[in-house]
Specification:
By secondary structure, the chain is an alpha/beta fold. It has helices at residues 2-42, 66-85, 159-178, 180-186, and strands at residues 48-51, 57-60, 97-102, 106-108, 114-121, 135-138, 140-145, 148-153. Helix 2 runs parallel beside helix 3 and helix 3 packs across helix 4 (180-186). Bound molecules: zinc ion.
């Protein structure tokens, strides 16, 4: 009898750990596609995974500190508030967002102000005032719409700027899911127009 109980316990432990493994496996497949996309665009490696206190998921080039995670939550809180003011209802959960923190490709802008930015291929910005010769510096960039994901650069100070970037990149994602027409009109900044889009 005792042997049977032990056997059952071992079997149930095995089944349980297999279930966990399956869930982690399915989740990591979606995440791997996102991570590949982020690596392709930034040429960085995202070895650190974290979660904000409110539940947004984070992949980063180094362990993000509490101020960074709070700044992300604050940006999403502002975004959700303005989205609700506009009666948008989709993608208003912190857990709907996966955020990548990349290495900064510059830390000061042309005005010599602190401005950690990422360099991304210019594509639609070719020949515009933003073009640096094949690439542009961007504060942030949308990576995917389903699930919602974007990337911005590491900050060591001015976390208010992080909250703004989160809110601004989030605007594109919120609009994509709630107001496709306004999304299309505002997705490409090379035609002019910036953030905030939503008021
Ligand atoms: Zn934008």
């Amino acid at each position: 009898m005792k042997k049977l109980k032990t056997l059952l316990r071992i079997v149930s432990m095995f089944v349980f750990s297999f279930m966990i493994y399956q869930t982690a496996e399915a989740q990591s497949r979606a995440d791997r596609a996102l991570i590949n996309q982020a690596v392709r665009i930034t040429k960085d490696n995202f070895s650190f995974a974290a979660q904000t206190p409110k539940g947004a998921r984070v992949y980063a080039v180094s362990q993000p500190n509490a101020r960074m995670l709070d700044a992300i939550d604050n940006g999403l809180t502002d975004l959700f508030a303005v989205a609700q003011k506009n009666n948008y209802q989709r993608q208003l959960n912190y857990s709907d967002y996966t955020i990548f923190i990349a290495k900064a490709d510059r830390t000061t802008n042309s005005d010599k102000n602190y401005s950690p930015d990422i360099a991304v291929g210019s594509a639609q910005y070719a020949g515009s005032v933003y073009d640096q010769g094949g690439f542009v510096y961007a504060a942030g960039m949308v990576l995917a719409y389903n699930p919602c994901a974007f990337v911005f650069a590491e900050h060591t100070k001015d976390f208010q700027r992080v909250s703004e970037i989160v809110r601004y990149e989030g605007e594109h994602l919120i609009l994509y899911h709630n107001d496709r027409q306004l999304y299309k009109k505002t997705a490409d900044h090379s035609q002019g127009g910036g953030h905030p889009i939503l008021k």
